[in-house]
Specification:
about 260 residues; alpha/beta; globular
């Protein structure tokens, strides 16, 4: 009989339960993933209680309140607080989303917060985005042309400009990519939904003159074709984009150029 042994620090343990805020009447309970590379302790789930009457309504507001008023060691990324930068992407109540646009009122009961799944953790709620950004860079996300640069600008019709809708709004938060089972198992070779959506953004751009080169770059059993249209990516996108559709469009172009 086969016996499998997991790494000793793979099991999440019960962490510290912090004291309720004194005098608070409207309290929200938070269970937050904690892990530090500075010791050998297992990951743990700490429990915090947030005074809703002293805190703004979003999950990010609560995390900032916890860090400010209870536990300054809690670590997470955030920047714009407006759903634009993508820094505060994390798994909240079982769904990848942005903490700054997820309201506490949208969640019933205890609010559970984890880092984005299936990525190495730097500390607490901070995932290592190194591989994700390297894959984005690999699709060469810039305009590539061979004709001489015009004196003023590259012109584009209104119709061609509209083809970029649903692509340029991507904020590279990685919510879609880290919700994809194909990416979980093949993240070393499969580019994932976010990078492929961005690749299609340049493929459909009428000003770009490297379509064939871009398709050649994606013509690989893993880089593109590990997508099995599970649709988790489109469901998870906090900006309402559809990476699965973009991936399907790339596959269609692959076929069309062979006909």
């Amino acid at each position: 009989m086969v016996e499998l042994t997991l790494p000793k620090n793979s099991k999440i343990t019960e962490g510290k339960t912090w004291q309720r805020p004194v005098g608070a009447r409207n309290v929200a309970a938070f269970r937050v993933y904690r892990w530090s590379p500075d010791d050998d302790a297992n990951p743990r789930m700490d429990t915090y209680f947030v005074d809703r009457d002293d805190c703004a309504p979003m999950v990010l507001d609560a995390l900032i309140w916890i860090k400010t008023n209870i536990d300054p060691t809690l670590t997470f990324r955030r920047s714009c607080r407006e759903g634009v930068c993508g820094s505060c992407a994390m798994n909240i109540d079982g769904t990848n989303t942005l903490a700054c646009t997820k309201g506490m009122d949208e969640i019933k009961g205890t609010i559970k917060v984890y880092p984005l799944p299936h990525m190495q953790v730097v500390k607490d709620l901070v995932p290592d985005m190194t591989n994700f950004y390297a894959q984005y860079a690999s699709i060469e996300p810039w305009l590539k042309t061979t004709t001489p640069t015009p004196e003023k600008e590259w012109k584009q019709s209104h119709e061609d400009r509209q083809k970029l809708d649903g692509h340029y709004e991507c904020i590279l938060c990685a919510c879609c990519t880290t919700s994809c089972p194909s990416y979980w198992w093949n993240s070393d070779r499969y580019l994932g939904p976010a990078a492929l959506l961005q690749a299609n953004r340049w493929i459909v751009d009428s000003r770009d003159e490297a379509t064939g080169e871009r398709l050649d770059n994606l013509e690989d059993p893993f880089r593109l074709y590990r997508c099995h249209t599970i649709m988790n990516c489109s469901k998870a996108c906090p900006k309402g984009l559809n990476p699965a559709q973009s991936i399907a469009e790339i596959k269609k172009k692959m076929v069309e150029r062979q006909v």
